[in-house]
Amino acid sequence: MAEATHLLDLPLKHKPKDIKPQGSGSGLDADKVDGLHASELGGGGPHAAIHETGGGDKVHFADLERGELDATLHDAFTGTPHISQTEKDKIHDRLHALDSTLDHSGVITDAQHGTKTTIPDAHHRKWSWADEQGWNREIVVPLTGKRMSPGGGGGGGWTRIGQVLGLGASGTWDALHVEPASALKVGNEIFLYYTGRNSTGTYRCGLATSVDPKGTFTRYAGNPIIDLGGAGAPDEVCAACPTVVYDRAENIFKLWYIGASAAWANRYLCYATSNDGKSWTKRSPPNVYTFPGSPSTDWGPVVIKVGKYYFCGYRDGTSGNIYLLASNDGINWTNEGSILSLGSAGQWDDTNLNYIGLFWNLGIWYLTYTGRNSAGNSGVGMATSVDGFNFTKWRYNPIYYNSASGFDSQRVYWAILLMIDDVFYMYYGGFNGVNITIGVATLP
Known about the structure:
Helices cover 5% and strands 41% of the residues. By secondary structure, it is mainly beta. It has 2 domains: 7-139, no CATH class; 159-443, Glycosyl hydrolase domain, family 43 (Tachylectin-2, Chain A). A hairpin with a 5-residue loop joins strand 18 (322-327) and strand 19. The two termini are 23 Å apart.
């Protein structure tokens, strides 16, 4: 069993009490953003199970495949022979804080019987695990005990579906490359935010939508949703990497992107807002943070909201490591330092880390990234954390590689995660030697 961490004292650096995951790759949903929230327990997934034993007041997390999870999921109450009613109340309150999307309809899946069952107090039944004897629920995590090989060999656990967004028409703003940046489920549609690049090397932000997360996406007619700023603006020559959070408290969509001033002299974290996730208004001025280090190699960012705090991951151009920013409002940011380093010599990611995604689910942070070795081979890796500041690389990295042929035959970039009904969708950029387009893979 993995190392224990108490549910009542999650070691978040800022200790937010109202952990409600939102944002890019988090499985975000709200009243107007439907579907499974990252704090929702999933039913029927094959990867892990929460068991409550019939003879005691203990909560157990069952072993994952081969019993390995690198201290991410954990036995919350190891060695506790009995939980008092006071502690049960604390557990209920703690888990209630995670619950932000249940409609309290009284319909849940009873994993023991495999059917939908109406229970008078579904909210209580769903979260108060210590109170209900003999009840089992399954949860799913985006991890497998399989390693993928270059060319797509070795399985890897993920199923490669194919390309979902191709290039724009010749001469348009996204005719050379399209790269995924974030994905949200809004109503019955998937909003896929992406970076487009034209033949002159200029980056802008776009949106494509689909009702089928594995289907072909259609470009929004109002693209690009974020265009370049005017002369002297912090986004004069670049507006890229749109990462989006729906802020339930303020009932608006928030978007951060990377902007670059003339001649790429500086790179900035820039900010815009929207009422519908399609039409955006830039903050004036848009820049809210100046990235340190070499301006020619810093790239990103990706933003996620956990509780009332915002976190932004990006690649630092000086060290080559992944760094983290934190903020109370998404505008004023503090640099928390490095959270993921290059692999040691000879490892698959010893030369470059880049193109990251952040996903939060049931108290665990998942960081996806593109790694490259000295031979030029690149793949997608994953790292996990219980606090958002200390990450451990998954032992079965890389989790995803290029295929032997097709749109992603040379390299894969920038994997981002979306969870819908216990299925993980990984949107990624595939490079065929000339162009980058967007594909999707699923787990399970």
